[in-house]
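Intended use. Records like the one below are meant for learning the mapping from a protein sequence to its folded structure. Do not use them to infer anything beyond what is encoded.
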Amino acid sequence: MDLFDENLKKRAREETFPLPDDYAGRVFATCAALEEKTVKTKMTTARRWALGAAAALAVFIAVPNISAPAAAAMEQIPVLGSIVQVITFRTYTYDDGHGQADVSVPQIDGSGSAAASVNKDVQAYTDQLIEQFKTDCRDLGEGYEGLDVSYKVVADTDGWFTLRVDALETRASGYEFSKIYNIDKTTDKVVGLADLFRPDSGWQDLLYKEVLGQMNEQMAASSDKTYFTEDFTALDPNQNYYFDKDGNLVLAFDEYAVAPGSMGPVEFTIAKSVWQGLRK
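Structure written out for the chain above:
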């Protein structure tokens, strides 16, 4: 529990205004109502999650200022810490009938140099996307230009944190791409793919062959699968990645990077047993 949470509860205990007996239940009901729902449209799930998290944060800030029972109710909510770790730092929206943008810029609400580094990079990255959107709108004139940027927390454990920022640029067709940030909480370091492995372990060639093998297997099994295997000759050491719930390594490729746009962004899961012996 951080100092922010402790101060909230301290203020709550000092208040004398009585809280209804059922208020703890209302807090739990509010959290339950924020459960993420599956949606069909592209790039909307993370935005809805962000809005829900913002609403929950507003509740948690307001409730403890009412009375001591509210603080006691908050102590029973195990997800408080994870909800307040990432906030929407700012938003950018634009719509003139020809250009439309909806950008949510996340910020990690935590101490440490890794969080500060990610926040700085995210702000610079989203600023660049917004400026490019403005330039494209001017250049296209009557043409349509769209920009949609959202984010989600992929992992938040005792030792690891992963933030994913997704973008969709739209003209005649769409282009989806992402930036994934991984933080090792035990070392307070931002960890790139190359940082995971011993330099002399041959990890890059091993993972490349694993991805290429999966591409060929998928194409052999289905005519709907097509990959640019002739152009995919090496794995970028800065490749986007994250760990799934089972600890497997997932390599995430932007749309058009290794496959035609009809396949959208693609991901390849590499079992832990394949690479764990190469870790630092």
